[in-house]
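hi! just following up on the protien thing from before. the input was this:
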Amino acid sequence: MFLGEYQHALDDKGRVVLPSKFRNSLAGGCVVAKGQDDCLYVYTMEGWAAKAAQVSALPATERKARDFARALFGGAKDQEPDKQGRIVIPEKLVEYASLEKDVTVVGVADHIEIWSTPAWQAMSATADEFYSGIEEALSTGGEI
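and the predicted 3d structure came back as:
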């Protein structure tokens, strides 16, 4: 399980160091893909297989499902972390997520997200406000 928030840097070669506590889970390789909200998702190979099965099960007769699959799979890239725990972020994905030097790596249970630090800070502030009120709605069976 991936947990926590970590500050890292994107180097001149488009590489980012993944947190040391994530590296054992990614030793068999990983997939970097477009995420929602202008971030990137990093999945273990097993996690990617599950995500691929989920997306592949969407009805191919629906345009939104086809477009989603194209965006997800078309931009995805398999990676194997090097000995320093770095992965290369392809230029198209760097552009998609507006990554610059400072990035934030976030563990989100079954996957990792890579954010530009300014985008993470803005999203996190909004999410924290939402989070503070959501527990009550969930505990009473209310809607989010």
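The CA atoms of residues 17 and 86 lie 4 Å apart.
The chain is about 40% helix and 30% strand.
cheers
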